[in-house]
Input
Amino acid sequence: MSENKIPYKIYLSEDEMPHTWYNLRADMKNKPAPLLNPGTLQPMTAQELEGVFCSELVKQELDDQTAYFEIPREIRDFYKMYRPSPLVRAYCLEEKLQTPAHIYYKFEGNNTSGSHKLNSAIAQAYYAKQQGLKGVTTETGAGQWGTALSMACGYLGLDCRVFMVKCSYEQKPFRREVMKVYGSSVTPSPSETTNVGRKILAEFPGTSGSLGCAISEAVETAVSTPGYRYVLGSVLNQVLLHQSVIGLEAKTAMDKYGVKPDVIIGCAGGGSNLGGLIAPFMGEKLRGEADYRFIAVEPASCPSFTRGEYRYDFCDTGKVCPLSKMYTLGSGFMPSSDHAGGLRFHGMSSVLSQLYADGLMEAVSVKQTEVFEAAEYFARVEGILPAPESSHAILAAVNEAKRCRETGEEKTILFGLTGTGYFDLVAYEKFHDGVMSNYVPTDEEIARSLAQLPVVE
Amino acid sequence: MSENKIPYKIYLSEDEMPHTWYNLRADMKNKPAPLLNPGTLQPMTAQELEGVFCSELVKQELDDQTAYFEIPREIRDFYKMYRPSPLVRAYCLEEKLQTPAHIYYKFEGNNTSGSHKLNSAIAQAYYAKQQGLKGVTTETGAGQWGTALSMACGYLGLDCRVFMVKCSYEQKPFRREVMKVYGSSVTPSPSETTNVGRKILAEFPGTSGSLGCAISEAVETAVSTPGYRYVLGSVLNQVLLHQSVIGLEAKTAMDKYGVKPDVIIGCAGGGSNLGGLIAPFMGEKLRGEADYRFIAVEPASCPSFTRGEYRYDFCDTGKVCPLSKMYTLGSGFMPSSDHAGGLRFHGMSSVLSQLYADGLMEAVSVKQTEVFEAAEYFARVEGILPAPESSHAILAAVNEAKRCRETGEEKTILFGLTGTGYFDLVAYEKFHDGVMSNYVPTDEEIARSLAQLPVVE
Output
């Protein structure tokens, strides 16, 4: 089919939407390292994990052999309410940049949660419901994951208890209110409702909380409340599995028009969006069927890929979670108050970490004000106000397209536009007012944080 | 095609998107009454109107004979960035309500302005640009129109000066910030920058402003600044013309699947969304080709159709605008601080007013807390957090579907879901906290306001 016929937005029909998730691990020669029990330093067993997670999700977490998992009909029906998400040809951006590059983005923000997080939220809530559970607990930082999970639980009639990082709880009352619309209870973290919360409050009175701390509280609540399990919106293998729907849809849409991306770009916090977007493309690369460049974009304020170490670490501050082998800045690392809350995590998905360690993927880090410049530019040209997280990918894509302008290369660029910035306007205001920081941690800070980690052979 | 094959969301292809707007007035036997010069009480001439509006828009405003206006290619290209909007089959809502009715909604909220307003904003900005103007002025209440116009002007590189009702300016800093992202200047109204603003401030120190007052300031600025014109987001004939893209898309999508709505429902403030949604269907009714029921839903706090009078009135508080014949509560009517800011206008489109006077359309008014109950119900079932304005239509559609449950009728209901409620969470919070008012004006209040109006024979 001729390139001329490519519309501004490609929507798959319902029939073309994926019926299975794709498990990238099945095609990896070097499998991601297993989760370890922090007490015994032995790989976590299914039984151990089932105290925290739903059984079906534990299966998905541990299975690195099965390539495809069927998406249950109920989840596919829910997907149909807000998916397929459009694959957008950025004609206006290309013209404005005067680049010969062809730019596409997969836009995951057109739903009330405002991001891709809903793809895994509905899956995790569904399996909890199937198992006959009463409810789930989780943490949320910027609030996108908490909102997504609230929507999924509200739909299924499942109780949802969200621990929201205290500074976000106070600064983002609107996110909190959306969760309440969907019937969730939202507790500022650290709180007096858990042992770990009380301990942290005693140690650091007046603390405004952290994602790692909220995770600890949510896990403690789940394991100590009958009929409850914990769910997590990123980092885990199961989450990347569910998010593969992004990449599968994108690839089907591109295949339909005979388009092959040369470079695929995504922002990377815990890795859920990037892992989902690249999955089927990386699968082809691993199987030797095609080649692509992959670029992870992270904030310079929290650069786990580009400045962290590949080793075992805790996912949470309270050290109640299993150890995961990943690129990490150390679980004690306190990222500066960067406005891309979704990228402010010290570690990275173990799947992506292994791919990066094997040289299958590149990573770059970018500064906050440059990200917001790209965000505003994009908003004016493409008409979508992007989330700060997503704008990391925009910046890298624009830079790539500018290079093409210089070299004259007609590259095809695909990037993930994970969400909208409607709840991030305080950040935009700071950017306009010229009071946005560009803090980058020193080598000493990172070394100090990494020195605290357990040594695991 | 079988009903079973109707997907959750119907997206037209780019080829199927309308190439023309439809001018409902061409098919009306009783034409809407002309705008009058408030000094001479004679119909406004094109020349008089061109001091305020762009020439091309004046043509559209005055033309009640031409049925179709071609949509310029540049506007169609802009439409492709965020349109077609989906026509959604509300399967989940139908199931939850256990109704035999088939419910469809045309969802206009999936763009950064958050509403249908962008459809007319880009058209008005385009014609201003074509005429070689430097910029445009406008007013905004809730902020949706101001945001939409800012996006359109940002895209075209046109200066945009927005007068924002002061209480909204203060209560909705995020809306204000989005407009700034798109490069607009935003002034709280009443302001010291205009004669009418200074006069109102002297008369009512500390006033928090009103839409009618902001209109006066925007008009004054436009007529007194070389290279500027005024643009308006609702009420006018030209706006209804541009908004016909909503109804045209909806009808094409329904025709494609052989579906014919029995009843078409929309919220009504100034009438831009309702007028656009019903246009092609009402056209068929006027030409005797088909029959439909049309229902306008307005807030009980500002009930121009159901409790106003059909007569000439000013559109603004400062009385600088032409007189329009419409259902009105009186231009001095001060609606209570209902949270559906977009529906808080004392008058109504003259096109819709004439249709209502001729018995071609019905109207109902609904109370605020009932609207929010419907909004929250809808959010949980259909996954979209609706704007308060749109939720008026949701409530009426749900009520209609419930009646079908009782009678067993398999009616097909179409309603307009004009926008999202991401910037309305203060209202949702008030609803949750049980402090939302249900104020309804007394007969005396309305009579007093109407008694102030000029008598026009």
